[in-house]
Amino acid sequence: MDKAAFNNIRDLVFKESGIVLGDAKVALVVARVSRRMNELGIDKHQAYIDHVKADKTGTEVIKLLDAISTNVTHFFREPDHFDTLRDIVDGWFGEGQDRIRVWCSASSTGQEPYTISMSLSEIPQARTKNVRILATDISTRALGRAKEGNYSTEEIEKIPLGLLNKYFVKEKSGNVVRHQVKADQKKMVLFGRLNLSEFPFPMKGPLDVIFCRNVMIYFNNELRVKIIGEFERLLKVGGYLMVGHSESLAGYVGNFQMLRPSVFVKTA
Q1: CATH class for domain 3-68?
Q2: 149, 110 in Cβ contact below 8 A?
Q3: Does the predicted model carry a pTM greater than 0.90?
């Protein structure tokens, strides 16, 4: 892929998603775009770029973003966030709150929202409350897998055995073992496609907790500030925002107070 074609693709990806592709991503872009080109029978990078731009339905842009998106995730990643979530929601239940809304804003292939659902289900009062999780991602491919809720033995290895037995059904076909999320957990989660670089976000608040972990590292500062502003708009006063352990709200001036690194509460 020549420099001009790479610049065209990364400009297109940035325009459509806000994702910044640095010069070090050339090999990744070539590998992932080439797979999509092979599916279409296109052998020239510029021809593929022209194909994306000519598609007035927007379908091929979504396919491109699916190809480029990095879906690194696992169950109970950065587990202290889920302990914190359980403690917060348990406290709200104790105060008489009956309705809980959590948004997982970069749900990838479903491990994070299902970890949230399991964590909340471990609160004794949760089964009698109105608890829902909105899970969104830019990748339709990842969302398809998330909705299926079916995982390999390697993918579920971070789940404690007690929770695995309680919330998953083990399925075996020949020598292949898979683990299916149970129906009661699936009912807690609503999946939908959302582009974090398109404003305003379409959901209605107020939300109680927002997870946006290990995704804002792919955006520039200007876009990060806009995204955090939308999170503040949608959260209730006293609601929580959780970001990745390597992330912060640096550069944002608003009504978030840091409780500890990566955990923030909306104060006004």
Answers
A1: mainly alpha
A2: yes
A3: yes
